Amino acid sequence: MERAREHASTGELDSPAQRSEGAGTALELLVHGVGGTTPEEMLNDPRTVRITGDATAAVFRRADDADAEQRPEDYRGEPVREAYVWCNLTSGNGARALWLLLLPFMVVNLAHWMRPTTRGRKRVVRLYGLLVRLTGLTLTVLLVAAACEVALDLTAWQCAGTRACVKEHSWLGFLSPDVSGGGWWSQPGRRLALACLVPAALTGLLWYLSHRTWSAYESQQPMSRKAEPDEETGRTGLGRPGFWYGRRLVARLRAAHTAAGFLTVAAAVGTSAARYDRLSGGPAVLGVLGRLLDATLVVGAAVVLWVVCRRGRSENRLDQELDQTLVRWLPVGSIALLALTLVYAGWSRPDWHSTGRLPGDMTFGGIALVQGLLVIVLGVVARILYRARPDTRTAMRGLAGPAVAMLACALGGVMSGGVSQRVADWLDGTRESLPGPPVLLTWQASVIPPLLVVLAALVGWLARRSWQLRGREMETVELDYKGEPKDTARTRRIAGTRAMAALTDRAPRMVGVISSVTLLLGAGALAGALATEDTPGEAAQGAYAFVQGAAETAQALGSWLIGFGFILFVTWGRRAYKDPAARRTIGILWDVGTFWPRAAHPFAPPCYAERAVPDLTWRMATWIRATGGRLVLSGHSQGSVLAAAAAWQLKPSVRKRVALLTYGSPLERLYGRWFPAHFGPAALTSLHREVACWRNLYRLTDPIGGPVRLPGDCGPQVDREPLKDPLAYGRTERQPLPAPILGHSDYQADPAFADERERLLRRLRPDVPAPRARDDDGGVLESS
């Protein structure tokens, strides 16, 4: 009994004599892709039952197969099919579209996992992770600072202190000294103290969402086991026991980022009052309190930096500890400091009047400068890692992480500048009675039109390349369907689909160009903001007027584009969560981003794989232990990535009893190129050697899936020749109606799918000898 308990906790296989039921049964565990589906569609049967799981993610079978293990003789010729349905982890009601507002956080978290592959150089790897975490911290500060700009500076300081603005917005009347007749709230410090509740509430909401989504999506513990010896060599970290359970790190970062948010609000309120006390020569006690407040804010910022700089994830074991004191008291301490700041700012200062704008230029300029320096240093570190083990298939020669981090900073800057400018326009209208947002935010909004021009040029270049490639593909299509009656329109349509699918491979160049232009435009915006503060000489007045006019035009256009883009952004996000067709179009980018654990930013959207991977691991391990049968793990699109991650999490004795069938898989085409440290050639080669067997199917018309491209003898073993798409060129006896071009969908419709599944099942049978055997295509199938 004790031994049975031990096996149940570790997933170790019992001897064949102990498996009385289900011996010889084969199981095909289907994992769907990014578009999501229903168990009825996956199993091709209207009657399905849930075997295990809940309303969020579950395993289903046909109703007739529910007790298949008790009737193994009925399933000698075909496998029992199960469907793992996980689409509710990434879709649901339309309110989840608000997660798109956290896109900069998700993108910077993505950059953490894009580091180049390396062996050794642990200090450089840690430095890479530290730089990304610091970049993520600047994004949190930037978001809260932008909220402070809108609520404190534009609304409470500028508009409430201006008669013309309050006249148009009567709801601010109780804050205005002109309307309320010097009421209690009319003093600037008290107005700021009241308005700071908005950014403070935003920080609290981010903390709540991070905590709630962790409990709902990522709190599932993986199967407990010891680390394998080779996991220290760096082939991939996805197989480590603690990879899919980052509770300690997420809680630590959540505490630090929450504290950073509240400290930013406290600084926005307190430093303004402290500056007035120093300049006005008021009571000495207020001057002392102001200096103490500034010193406390510096100490708090140092503590936050220390927490973020501490070592990140612990993956070699299942780390269930929690830094209780740090996690609990760091946010509480920052809230207490904010409360003291509000009391200090609310102290009566009858002679204090709000003029101009709050000192936000230095804040936003400092954030932009720090972000630029972090990205540049991150690029140097990434290049050092890449040169240690160069791989031509790695996206952007190892610079993908810094480029994506730059895009995250650009998204944060553009959103901050655009929202601030739109609120300023709404409050002031055409009266020009308000100073408006800081100059840098205005310049950041002005970079949007030139960036769109660059995007339009890139789209034109891609269209030209696609047109050229379609011309070349037309000859290839005619050779693939040799002997068929020629149909120019049909050939052009097939060739065009192949050419459009090939555009995915040009994504690294697109990201590289956009990130480089963004860095240059950001530097130009910072320089323009600094130059605006200086008065030019008479000789430069003409040039200055021209540049200033062009900047104002671009700023006005960029401001409106931000508003339009925000509406379009949320609309598309809502549609992507509710419309399967839209999810197939844009969902792959979102699902790639939320596949990875939150290692760099705790406010990023939740990681669905921290629920899905343990689900699959537990299901495979317990079923094989209970039956001793054969198992084919069948994954489509993003499901193949989950399947590979789950296979890495299995114990070696269980992994050797699993065959892998992937189709429409982005394992190498997207993940191998963009995340080489975890899905590079070494990682995929080790997976191929450690599972029983593996076959991969793909089409040239598929924009997402592709070959695995394993080096040496592994290549022909895994990748089958590209499947024909469409299955028939014209009308035939078997296809009397025109066959559709399937692209990324419906791989099961191809007869090759059933052939490959049957071949994998034959390779898993106990009576198959160990030596190599050649398959029908001339490839080599290796037995483990």
Automatic annotation (TrEMBL):
Transmembrane regions listed in the UniProt entry: 127-147, 192-209, 255-276, 288-308, 329-347, 367-386, 398-420, 440-463, 510-531, 554-573
Residue ranges, compositional bias (Basic and acidic residues): 763-777
Sequence segments annotated as region (Disordered): 1-26, 763-784
Transmembrane helix found in the keyword field: yes
InterPro entries tied to this protein: AB_hydrolase_fold
Source taxon at top rank: Bacteria
Keyword Lyase: no
Keywords, sorted A to Z: Membrane, Transmembrane, Transmembrane helix
Name recorded for this polypeptide: Integral membrane protein
Species of origin: Streptomyces albiflavescens
Source organism phylogeny: Bacteria, Bacillati, Actinomycetota, Actinomycetes, Kitasatosporales
